[in-house]
Automatic annotation (TrEMBL):
It holds the Pfam family Fapy_DNA_glyco. Belongs to the FPG family. Keywords: DNA damage, DNA repair, DNA-binding, Endonuclease, Glycosidase, Hydrolase, Lyase, Metal-binding, Multifunctional enzyme, Nuclease, Zinc, Zinc-finger. Its cofactor is Zn(2+). Residues 298-332 form the FPG-type domain. This is DNA-(apurinic or apyrimidinic site) lyase. PANTHER family: ENDONUCLEASE 8 (PTHR42697). It comes from the Bacteria. SMART domains: Fapy_DNA_glyco, H2TH. GO terms for biological process: base-excision repair.
């Protein structure tokens, strides 16, 4: 499931490529035909992301709510204007220890993607935005416009130069302003949307009264917005916190540290396009981490491998139907 940083990156691209433009909307799959008809011919006027959900506003106070869920994906095609706040970040936001890292040369992952500019593709390229990162196909340019529909497209949003295809979302619906407000009101604080200090107080207060394990609370979008499986595992390890401890039994200073760490890691994720959770890396190690998830995380996806700190084998177990990775010694 896409985590908060991915949805904020997607929203930034809609801001640059759709807001202020008239949109042709259709539902090639047919499952959103009525909603697409309501949007067709309207102008996109605003976009916002809160946690794992994106809201795209059109004129006459109509909003499109999209929650990608486990299998949802956006495919962009055409002329895509890169977000300069992403493209110029050089992967250093919150990474003060990375000064001097040469990022003018691209850092490519195993799919050949440079995440810093992954949603800044050249003309007629396709960019898929799914899960935690983005992949871009930079092969031969396709001169066909609009691009052919591929697969089960729930919603196609088309401007004169840009196409966005939505597949497999958990939620894709038209909402009124009041319905949008009601949806957002059910979500916990998002550091990129809400006042950070107020968000810390709200998060701390909610956790303090919950008997639920802290490992489950971090995945509860009504407690805090945007955290998914990867960030959950990494935040708990970085805090050296046992994931099974009831929220109300976690020391207040630890809860506050987790919030502040989430503020920092979310910002890094938005600017780099990667869930970078390792600290104090030298330039070579940083480049390796940007290129490979195996070098990017403390415990996530490392079941059976030695803890990077104590050498104990990392455990994996199921918590609330999701895989939880943790170190039984460092997080005892």
């Amino acid at each position: 499931m896409p985590e908060g940083h991915s949805v904020h990156r997607i929203a930034r691209q809609f801001e640059r490529n759709y807001v202020g433009r008239r949109v042709a909307a259709s539902s090639p799959q047919g499952r959103f035909a009525e909603g697409a008809a309501m949007l067709d011919g309207r102008t996109a006027t605003a976009v916002r992301a809160v946690g794992k959900q994106m809201f795209l506003e059109f004129d006459d106070d109509l909003w499109l709510r999209v929650h990608l869920g486990m299998y949802g994906a956006w495919d962009f095609a055409g002329e895509i204007i890169a977000d300069p706040t992403i493209a110029s970040a050089n992967g250093r936001m919150g990474q003060t220890n990375q000064r001097g890292t040469d990022l003018d040369a691209p850092i490519l992952d195993s799919a050949g993607e440079n995440s810093l500019t992954s949603i800044g593709a050249p003309r007629r390229a396709r960019v898929r935005v799914r899960m935690s990162e983005q992949t871009t196909g930079l092969g031969a340019e396709d001169d066909q416009w609009p691009p052919p529909v591929v697969g089960q497209v729930r919603l196609r949003l088309l401007t004169d130069i840009t196409c966005a295809d939505l597949r497999g979302p958990t939620a894709c619906q038209i909402q009124t302003p009041d319905e949008v407000a009601a949806t957002i009101a059910k979500l916990g604080p998002d550091p990129l949307v809400d006042d950070i200090a107020a968000g810390e107080e709200q998060f701390t207060a909610v956790v303090a009264r919950k008997p639920t394990a802290i490992g489950q609370l971090l995945m509860d979008q009504s407690v805090v917005s945007g955290i998914g499986n990867v960030y959950r595992a990494e935040l708990l390890f970085r805090a050296r916190q046992n994931p099974h401890t009831p929220g109300r039994d976690v020391r207040e200073e630890v809860v506050r540290d987790i919030w502040r760490d989430w503020v920092r890691l979310l910002a890094i994720g938005v600017e780099t396009g990667q869930m970078m959770t390792m600290d104090d890396l030298d330039p070579d190690a940083y480049r390796a981490a940007m290129a490979s998830r195996d070098d990017r995380h403390w415990v996530y996806h490392r079941a059976g491998l030695p803890c990077r700190i104590c050498g104990t084998a990392i455990l994996v177990e199921e918590m609330a139907t999701r895989k939880l990775y943790w170190c039984p010694r460092c997080q005892a």
